[in-house]
Amino acid sequence: MDSLSALQSLGLSLPSPAYIVGAILFGLVGLWAFRAGKRAGRPRTRWLGVALMLYPYAVPQTWLLYLIGTVMCTLLWVDRG
Asked: Does some domain include residue 32?
């Protein structure tokens, strides 16, 4: 039995390419926000960066990944001022 069918029999599946791209994109934005918040002494920006880096591990659906990521990036945009 190959490993992919073994994972599927356990109820696990591989993420779609769109999910992987979104996770990488929001992770990089989160890394940038964390570093910028740390450098500027802005704790809210720093914590939003941490949240952007970590939330893809808890969100299973692609549409939800992009929705939450867009909301958090909007919060970063509002917080920059």
From this structure: yes
